[in-house]
Amino acid sequence: MKIDGGPAYVAVYVDDLVIAAKDPTLIKYIKDKFSSFFDMKDMGRLHHFVGMKVEQNDDTGEVWIGQGCYTGDILKRYGMENCNAVSTPMDPGLKMKSASSDDTVVDQSMYQSAVGSLLYLSVATRPDIAYAVSCAARYTAKPTKLHWALVKRILRYLKGTADLGLRYTVDGTEGDKLTAFCDADWAGDLDERKSTSGYVLMLSNCAVSWKSKKQTVIALSTAEAEYIALSAATQEVSWMRKLLDDLGEKCSGPTVVKEDNQSAMAIAANPGNHTRTKHIDIKFHYIRSAVQQNSIKLVYCPTSMMVADVLTKPVYQETFQRLRSRMGLTPQIVN
Amino acid sequence: MVNEFAFKPCDNKNFCEACVEGKQTRSSFKSREGISTKSPLELVHSDVCGKMGVASLSGREYVLTFVDDKTRYTWTYMIRKKSEVFEKFKEWKAMAEKSMGASLKTLRTDNGGEYVSTEFEQYLRSEGIRHEYTIPKTPEQNGVAERLNRTLGEKVRCMLSDSGLPKVFWAETFATATYLHNRSPTKPLGGVTPFQAWTGLKPTVGHLRRFGCSAYVHIPKDERGKLDMKSRKCILLGYGTNVKGYRLYDQLNKRVLYSRDVKFDESSRGYCVQKQNSNLKTGENQVTFESGTPDDNNEMSEVEAPRRSTRERRQTEFYGERASVAGEVFDEPSTYSEAVSSSSRKEWQAAMQKEMKSIYDNDVWDLVELPAGRKLVGSKWVFKVKRDADGNMERCKARLVARGFTQKYGVDYDETFSPVIRFESFRALVALAVKHGLQLHQMDVTTAFLHGVLEEDVYMKQPEGFERSGEEHMVCKLKKSLYGLSLHVVGILHLIRNSKRLASGKPMLIHACT
């Protein structure tokens, strides 16, 4: 809602309200108004929101959100609070397969609840484990020791990185604007040879939306896999642009989508039909119309800078840590 | 006989309903002398005997018997479950038909489920076998098979008693009893043994020894050192039918084995009672059967049991870890009765009182009679321990919820809706706040659910433990929404939508970011 003194935002989560406004008197006015309608408690500055810890630094204007406490709870729940930490959530050499008939199946409900806990983390504040968790979540129907080992590996990674959270900062550079990174891993799934899409949307130098998802169709080439991923990223960008527009934040010009595959960009740019692309489903050509309508702009980005890389495959430690910090994942600000 | 009574036999009345209703008895069973069948396998009697109450060494609980009517030759199979009957029947049929060179014509059984199943009946039909079964509750019609149960059962009891073997050996005993039965003269055959009637050969009985006596088995040369004993004491259990030798039990090593080099001491029992406790408690499931024991053996049906590891069994470690974690958690009762009987019932009682006070203060329901035709929704207490960030117990919380999952869409409610922001939207808001230097504040609606004003009528049971005395039959007609109800329209959004005062006339955008 708009009110004198700039925009004010109210976010509702069942019975929790988050109020954002520039002027403290405006915030007070809103709070008073709400209190006159409902039996409400003023919780002051935002510090916790649905299990996420929120830290606001007034000097730098930064905001940090993280789930260190919840991470600790998960570790304790699965008896991993004293485990040895590792630096990546997934071993790059790991070959995940679904269970064969002679594998020992582990307790399914425990596996599922562990994956569920990790999923919550991965969608709330931890894009760095999104790929590993989505891998683990593929095998909930018949988890074996191999799959449980992956879950434990993720927990060991969390043990060493429980203090990581998303830090939103503004420095007046291009990073302040909405930017998307999009990547795909071709035929990474060994059972069905399906590819994995990954994208990250960044705003204020930090990830706001991300996804790592096994594609629903089988891509015949790396370019096709990237193209399908690009389509998913485009859809998310469209939604985010609309949301920002509704929030009074006009997106001037197209949103930059960074992509590391020239062929996929060529397919998107060229509306013609070719032998190699004629089988690609129409729905994936959504991206072409978005390019034509100037709502997105594809920009090449070398793989070494591709943030979404960590959402599509297991990455080695050095690259992993570099890309992770580019997503805005940093330890908590100490005031 | 008596005075003043002219005795006249009632004529024309050979049926009196009152007499039948008052005096009827079961009809008598006339047993026919001798054997009416002309050739083997023309008629076979079968029955299942059990459950024995004691599982045998290899876990069997039932005996399946077959008796050929013409020759009275008997086969017994020890089975674990009645469902094995069909498989064993097919096995037996193939064996018996092959060895006799004739095919089975009629099978007579009782009316048991294992015999009259669809698959069994279909099989018999496809094989052209007539199936005769008894009238329910009339085992007399399956007399041959039933009498055999008694004959063998009595033999088994005597043999166990004489040998001093514990009951777990019943299956071994049963098999040996069958073996002996087939080699003993039988009355319906006029003193001929079933063995002779079936095979045409006279049985030899010179090898028979007293059941359960001490048997000293010669240890082969390559299995012993120069000064080791040359014999091992075992117990005679029976006779091999597919191998030529005695079937023996080695009590020390808990093994069943066959040997032909045996010396018997028929004057002493082979079973050592002192060892019974230590042996059978721990060793019951560890009995091993000599490798190569044939299991297609129709008389000695105690077949080879798989070898069991003697390693101590433990649960895998992560179960243990998890269990230990669960143990530390302050237990949250899952029902009202658990809460009021738990060690911390005072805390829970206080928590429930607090919730009830909030409900009364907010005027959530009226007590009414349930109108006819209306459905009643249950209620349930949910208990939760609230902890601070360090995991210390902060307070106990009790919440009354409606069991709204019994409601039906369209009948009991039309709209289900809870405003829940997407994580993406929340993060976008935070990012925007950073970009524009906004301050983030938060508010919490105390008992948010109570503000949902219901448009549909919902009737709920009175909360457990807080029934109004004297009005226990009354129900709560809800005026406001409770947790768990499938209409749970939280009022906040409703009011924001309708409220123009808040925004003082300025345009307001509601983004459904759920």
Q: What is CATH's topology name of the largest domain in chain B?
A: Nucleotidyltransferase, domain 5
Uncertain segments of chain B: 275-286, 290-304, 318-329, 499-508
Helix amount of chain A, in percent?
25-40%
The average pLDDT value of chain B, as a whole number, equals: 79
- Secondary structure class of chain B reads alpha+beta
Question: Topology as H/E string of chain A?
Answer: EEEHEEEEHHHHEEEEHEHHEHE
Number of domains of chain B: 2
Fold and architecture overview:
- The complex is a heterodimer of chains A (335) and B (514).
- Chain A contains nine helices and 14 strands.
- By secondary structure, chain B is α+β, with helices and mostly antiparallel strands.
- Chain B folds into two domains: 247 residues, Ribonuclease H-like superfamily/Ribonuclease H (Nucleotidyltransferase, domain 5, 2-Layer Sandwich), CATH 3.30.420.10; 163 residues, no CATH class.
- Helix content of chain B is 27%, strand content 21%.
- Chain B is extended and about 105 Å long.
- In chain B, 30% of the residues are buried.
- Classes of the chains: A alpha+beta (335), B alpha+beta (514).
- Strand 3 of chain A pairs antiparallel with strand 16 of chain B.
Kindly summarize this structure in a few lines.
The complex is a heterodimer of chains A (335) and B (514). Chain A has 335 residues and is of the alpha+beta class.
Task: Supply database-style keywords.
heterodimer; A: alpha+beta; Nucleotidyltransferase, domain 5; 5-stranded antiparallel sheet; 5-stranded mixed sheet; 14 strands; B: about 525 residues; alpha+beta; 6-stranded mixed sheet
List the helices and strands and how they pair.
The complex is a heterodimer of chains A (335) and B (514).
Chain A: E1 2-3, E2 6-13, E3 16-21, H1 24-37, E4 40-45, E5 48-49, E6 52-56, E7 63-66, H2 68-77, H3 108-124, H4 130-137, H5 145-161, E8 164-168, E9 179-185, E10 196-203, E11 206-214, H6 222-246, E12 255-259, H7 262-269, H8 286-292, E13 296-300, H9 317-326, E14 329-331
Parallel strand pairs in A: 9-12, 12-13
Antiparallel strand pairs in A: 1-2, 2-3, 5-6, 6-7, 7-8, 8-14, 9-10, 10-11
Chain B: H1 17-23, E1 43-49, E2 62-68, E3 74-79, H2 85-100, E4 106-109, H3 118-127, E5 130-133, H4 143-163, H5 170-182, H6 194-199, E6 213-218, E7 231-239, E8 246-250, E9 255-259, E10 262-269, H7 276-283, E11 288-289, H8 317-328, H9 336-341, H10 345-361, E12 365-368, E13 376-377, E14 379-387, E15 393-402, H11 423-436, E16 439-445, E17 453-460, E18 475-480, H12 491-498
Parallel strand pairs in B: 1-4, 4-5, 9-11, 13-17
Antiparallel strand pairs in B: 1-2, 2-3, 6-7, 6-10, 7-8, 8-9, 12-18, 14-15, 17-18
Helix pairs in contact in B: 4-5
